[in-house]
Specification:
The chain crosses the membrane at residues 12-30, 58-81, 93-113, 133-153, 187-220. Keywords: Cell membrane, Electron transport, Heme, Iron, Membrane, Metal-binding, Nitrate assimilation, Oxidoreductase, Transmembrane, Transmembrane helix, Transport. The chain is mainly alpha-helical. It has one domain: Up-down Bundle (Fumarate Reductase Cytochrome B subunit). It has helices at 3-34, 52-75, 78-81, 87-118, 120-125, 128-153, 158-171, 185-200, 208-219. The longest helix is centred in the N-terminal third of the chain and has 32 residues, at 3-34. The protein starts with a helix and ends in a 28-residue tail after the last helix.
Length: 247
């Protein structure tokens, strides 16, 4: 391999992941600490409902399935599931379920992007980062869908195993990217763009995802104990009115 390409390959798949993770975690913490007012999704529902409901629901359903599917699929060691499902069957399951979720997410995101680009009122109130992150997500989805035919070509699940081995090496701090040289270009671009989304995460409206995950903890909070406070008021006497209370 060309020395420059070899250097870029090693950088993007052994160093860049840690840069993205560090910025993702520390940047999110810094933004929450310094700019809590911006910690929101900036909904444009008040301006025009239109396709927002369909687009938002389809996008969120699809993206959540894809996120957890990638998370579990890439980080689950092969030995953990090989006793009850083969790697090839796991890959086929991932292709069909991930492909369906990707199409759902793509339709929803296309509706949201079209709405933000071509609705004059929403376009005027949109930040450039809002549009940029939607475009990046759209391109990432397209590339992800492009990888499906390549995955069909690897019926032995070799590509899936290589990707899983690389991802598990990253999280265990034993990065090795040599196996990725055997993969087609859509896989590599998909990985780089996916890591870049984590890099841009703290600087975009995507930070509201943290709040979504935090609501899970809200479900398991202890119950609040509320006691009524009874006042003994003699008969014929009225409670004093609160200052500023209107009629």
């Amino acid at each position: 391999m060309n020395p420059v390409l070899s250097y870029l390959h090693n950088f993007f798949f052994t160093v860049y992941p840690y840069i993205c993770l560090a910025v993702f975690l520390m940047g999110s913490l810094a933004r929450f600490d310094r700019d809590q007012y911006t910690w929101k999704s900036d909904s444009s529902q008040l301006l025009r409902t239109g396709t927002l409901r369909w687009g938002s629901n389809l996008f969120h359903i699809g993206i959540l399935f894809l996120f957890f599917g990638h998370f579990v699929g890439l980080l689950t060691p092969h030995w953990l599931y090989e006793s009850f499902i083969s790697a090839a069957d796991k890959q086929r399951m991932a292709i069909y379920s991930g492909g369906a979720a990707g199409i759902v997410c793509f339709i929803g995101l296309t509706l949201l992007l079209h709405r933000r680009l071509f609705d004059p009122r929403i376009r005027l109130t949109s930040h450039r980062t809002d549009i940029a992150i939607l475009v990046i997500l759209w391109v990432q989805l397209v590339i992800g869908l492009i990888t499906l035919p390549f995955s069909f070509a690897h019926t032995d699940a070799s590509a899936m195993l290589i990707l899983g081995d690389w991802a598990q090496g990253i999280v265990t701090f034993r990065p090795h990217a040599d196996g990725l040289l055997l993969l087609a270009w859509p896989y590599l671009i998909h990985l780089i763009l996916g890591m870049t989304i984590f890099l841009l995460f703290p600087f975009s409206r995507l930070v509201h995802v943290w709040s979504g995950f935090a609501t899970v903890g809200f479900l398991f909070r202890p119950n609040q104990l509320v006691r009524s406070r009874r006042l003994n008021v003699p008969a014929g006497h009225n409670l004093p009115r609160q200052p500023g209370a209107g009629v």
